[in-house]
Amino acid sequence: MKYLFIAAGILSAQAVAAETPELTVYTYDSFVADWGPGPQVEAAFEATCGCDLKLIGVEDGAALLARVRLEGVRSEADVVLGLDTNLTTAAAATGLFAEHSVEAEYDLPVAWDDPVFVPFDWGYFAFVHNADVTAPANFRALAESDAKIVIQDPRSSTPGLGLLLWVKAAYGEDAPEVWEGLSDNVVTVTKGWSEAYGLFLEGEADMVLSYTTSPAYHLIAEDDPTKAAAVFDEGNYMQVEVAAKLAATDQPELADQFLAFMVSDAFQSIIPTTNWMYPAVTPAGGLPDGFDTLAQPGKALLLTADEAALARDAALDEWLTALSQ
Amino acid sequence: MADRAQPVSTRWGLGAAALVAALIFGTLVAVAMRAEEGSGLSSSDWAALRFTLVQAVLSAAISVGLAIPVARALARRRFKGRQVLITLMGAPFILPVIVAILGLLEVFGRAGWVSAGLGLIGLPPVRIYGLHGVVLAHVFFNLPLATRLILQGWQEIPAERFRLAAQLGFGARAMLWRIEVPMLRRVVPGVLAVIFAICMTSFAVALTLGGGPKATTVELAIYQAFRFDFDLGRAALLSGVQLVLTGGAALLALRAATGAGFGGGQDRMVHRWDGRGRGARALDFSSIALGAAFLLLPLTAVVLSGLKGLSDLPIQVFSSALISVGVALVSMVLTLLLALPMAVAVALGRDKIGEAAGILGLAASPLVIGTGLFIIIFPFANPTTLALPVTALVNAVMALPFAVRILVPRARQVVVQYTRLSLSLGMVGWPFIRRVLLPRMRAQIGFTAGLAAALSMGDLGVIALFADPEVATLPLQVFRLMGSYQTDAAAGAALILLVLSMGIFWALDRGGRWHAEA
Fold it and tell me: What is the largest CA-CA distance in chain B?
């Protein structure tokens, strides 16, 4: 019954801390991992807010939204951090989120004026490959090559959905034809990013759908320069990760304070080497060494949140049809 | 038969079955009631259903088909390292899915050992991705379980039968038709049902090795309904279909399990006089060698990549390991508390109820149980603080079908053999349980406990739905490491998980193994 003691310990610790206000932030699981941004963010915010920041990890972005929808207005969460623009239309439609008051000079390749969602980091999707092979220059060249790729299922994975919208944004009505061309390149489709990346590292495929920032991890954390990301000439699709305040929060000021902190240097300088994404606002110290070596797409693609929500279901049908043959 | 005098009451068993059913249907109803708008089943859902059924039937049939010769060989032979081999063979079953897949791919993948070997003699690499890949992986996961369950069937044949068979001069054919086939007819349907149920809820294995959306299973469709469409009604509907199909198949299988059994013996050591011919020995040798190679090669791959990662393990892995052991032990106790009374109830004639409730634990979608529990708990308490107890409970319910399968045959034997004697001595209730039942079920209880604990250790389960940053289980930690590029450290943590699970399994299983050994 060991865990009961642990639970009891947590509860009593909470009772002691009851005088300091508590801010509960729901985020995706890898954010709260010990090697993720969570612990550093918590320490930095608690140093200034006079509060207790509680980060709760919930699988991934889609699970995060599902969790908030399940809990509704009675949710303990004050802030949700980790949705992306493919989810924000559905999230806004729940009416559970409130407008923010953050003003910042974002370093995003696209203009940002969403009244509810505040971006905290972003990245380009890209196929990651071994640096010693020449990658194809676009999806059509990839389809004609015999390069093998591993991708994620859009129904269960955020990058998988990103790829779906990438092809849609780049090719519009020709998307089904592109997918048919790609179908013999796809070795397999995985549930999530981890499985796909693991398969790639095992040598099961030549390329894996990931981010242009992935080689930075290998370079900076492992001193391994052998991974590269392919820039496609039709443009690389972006992922912008956002946070928002819940309308039913009992700590509205603290939540606003957290969102403002989120776009400040203290938070933004933690992001690159823990979340391995670009910060939404480049901190004064610039990006860490190694980020300058990363591939720079010539063109950034991103459907607006509403376009993405509209395109999603039809794009999924096209994908399923093309790859199920 | 309820009015017949019985040494123990079936009340507890029926109560446990009712509890399990309440948990499974309660969570399903909770999800359905939270549904807002919803759609019925689409054509792609039906396609998913077809694929799920086909792969589950194939996986169950092939796993059991291959397990029979391996179990037969292990039952007939005694050799050095036999027990170690039997324990090690159980490993695939308790590994986190993704770790096992990576191990399997290191052997059978495009860049795997087999492909490399083929490359040396100028052949193209194996094509693992497709229906055959899904079935291969499911056989890898379930062959050990099937082997253990069928082996147990052999071990439960009383020693006296073999002695009699030897005295009567049974040849191989007579042995087969008089002793082995009747045993298999009793044991195999239940094993088929359990493996079919496991494969019905497969998701990551089927998708990854299936090579694309053709290999969509019902569980993925449920996941999609939750995450992609937030259509709780459809999720509940799909889960209901899954339950009905699995439950139906299980009942069919259990009805097919026929034969009166072998009655009791005097718990003597089993001694075999058959299978001494050269042909039989060669057959047994090759069955064991092939089975062991198939299961142990991917495991070796897991160990090898794990050793590389041991040096850069973050410290949190060790606290997570402690938490996982705690959860596993609690889950094991819960499993036994539920399974033993259910097994006794089944043995006393309330078979269908107990066995069906047992199977349902596997047929239910973990995602639906987790979400349902979340919906039920949320109004009363913060589900995050209950993450570990909930994980232990759900793991126990998932282990229940195996537990019931393991415990029932022996419980039946004991009841058949000792009821009259115990009743005439007035040994009913607790004295019967303590003096007669439990001592004779030691082997099965040990095996059940080991399996339940190991399963719970390896299962990512519902913890991800409830995760609290301070209390992560080891499988969750492995997954977190993989999700943050730290593949080597993840492999190292997986190795620790493997060693701990096997250690617990071995210790508990060994506690009860005395009677099986020569």
Answer: 75
